[in-house]
Design brief:
The protein has 362 residues and is of the alpha+beta class. It has helices spanning 16-29, 34-49, 60-69, 97-115, 131-140, 193-201, 222-227, 236-252, 288-303, 319-331, 338-351; strands spanning 11-14, 79-84, 87-91, 117-125, 143-149, 170-174, 182-186, 211-212, 218-219, 229-230, 273-281, 334-337. Helix 1 (16-29) runs antiparallel to helix 2 and helix 3 runs parallel beside helix 11 (338-351). Bound molecules: nicotinamide-adenine-dinucleotide.
């Protein structure tokens, strides 16, 4: 079985590291410190390289507009406001979410080194993009990482049509021997809203099952879905998980519950998003070598399991994205939706930043 078919638009090909430098220059011109701009650009590029296009460079224009309008403070530095044993609370002070999330997971890893586990809540943050990036940060330190965030409302409670729940993504990562870390990372809606946004920008329909219109009727019209509701994963199980993640990321950390979070397009309003990060040190439970070998053996067994007749391959979360990243590196270019590129050029003009030249059409 292959990954879900996602709508594709007309594209522009760019040399990846030229694109990354461009993103850094845009973020710096908008007031970010150079190292924070580098963090943001690196994560956005990695999303595009790893096939998580819903959270790649497509997001940069709205982040820049939010920084310009006061919705994000580009120069803010997150701060640890409470710490006790294995837990800490971070106030992001309305910083960019990616920078805030890297900071908080660094703290969770440091706590786990001392206590075996680190649990860090973060408030007053903004949209942090792909949860998996921060879970992978723990895996890169040889730990298990678990990450969630709340998000502006886009789903209704099961049986309802009022958009009061976020699609609050969850990520889990673990290192393995001889291969990409396992990283499961998904929204609690059938797809992240970014995929609907990409379809909308390309003037394309979305697959049935992704969304409902504002009246709660199933729709394949991306414009109606943008104003409507995303369908949860697993029916009431998805909406139940959304509430659970809101309790962790909204209420526990003293942020705002999804129902009252502003949408990112309200560019002057601080996001008020909350996140939660857990790092677990493996050696407190089992020898790390043995753990990583066993995870590798489990994943090999899953990958090699007997397949259904119409299935080409069983895919492993983390390896899917690792394979895409290696393929993109071998190709030497990254593709952006033409609409995303036009938006980036508009931002470049506004900020007086020079843009790289796209590669010839292929
Ligand atoms: N910050 C936010 O507010 C926010 C909100 C929603 C989503 N997101 C992010 O959006 C991104 C995309 O989310 P999504 O829900 O659209 O992801 P998705 O539906 O594409 O699912 C991705 C996950 O499923 C795995 N996967 C995909 N196809 C598979 C297959 N055939 N077999 C086995 N595993 C498979 C992938 O490895 C990955 O772990 C994530 O990074 C998520 O964190 C962020």
């Amino acid at each position: 079985m292959s990954t879900r078919t996602k709508p594709s638009a007309a594209t522009v090909a760019l040399e990846p590291y030229g694109l990354e430098r461009f993103a850094v220059a845009l973020a710096c011109a908008q007031g970010m410190h150079a190292d924070d701009a580098a963090t943001l650009a690196e994560i956005l590029l990695r999303c595009d390289l790893r096939g998580i296009r819903s959270h790649g460079m497509v997001r940069l224009p709205v982040y820049l507009r939010r920084m310009a309008a006061g919705g994000i403070d580009p120069a803010a530095t997150p701060e640890i406001v409470r710490e006790s044993g294995a837990t800490a609370l971070v106030d992001a002070h309305n910083a960019n979410g990616h920078v805030a999330a890297r900071f908080a997971m660094r703290k969770a890893i440091e706590l786990a080194e001392r206590h075996g586990i680190g649990a860090v809540g973060e408030r007053n943050s903004n949209h942090f993009g792909p949860s998996g990036e921060y879970a992978l940060q723990a895996a890169a330190a040889g730990m298990i990482g678990i990450v969630s965030t709340n998000a502006a409302p886009c789903m209704a409670p099961w049986g309802g049509i009022a958009p009061i729940l976020g699609n609050n993504p969850i990520a889990f990562a673990a290192p393995r021997a001889d291969g990409d870390p396992f990283v499961l990372d998904f929204a609690l809606s059938q797809v992240a809203k970014g995929w609907v946004r990409l379809a909308f920008a390309a003037g394309r329909a979305i697959p049935a099952g992704w969304a409902m219109d504002a009246q709660g009727r199933p729709t394949t019209d991306a414009a109606a879905a943008m104003k409507g509701l995303l369908n949860p994963i697993g029916a009431y199980k998805g909406t139940g998980l959304s509430i659970a993640m809101d309790i962790l990321c909204g209420i526990l950390v003293g942020s705002t519950a999804s129902a009252d979070l502003p949408h990112q397009e309200n560019v002057a309003l601080p996001g008020n998003v909350g996140h939660f990060f857990i790092a677990i040190q493996i050696e407190r439970f089992i020898a790390p070598d043995e753990f990583e070998r066993s995870v590798g053996a489990l994943l090999d067994r899953v990958e090699g399991a007997r397949r259904a007749p119409d299935t080409d391959a069983i895919l492993i979360p983390g390896k899917i994205e690792g394979d895409k990243e290696r393929a993109a590196a071998a190709r030497g270019y990254v593709e952006l939706a033409a609409e995303t590129w036009s938006e980036l050029l508009r931002e470049a003009e506004r900020l007086g930043v020079g843009a790289p030249t796209p590669l010839p059409a292929r």
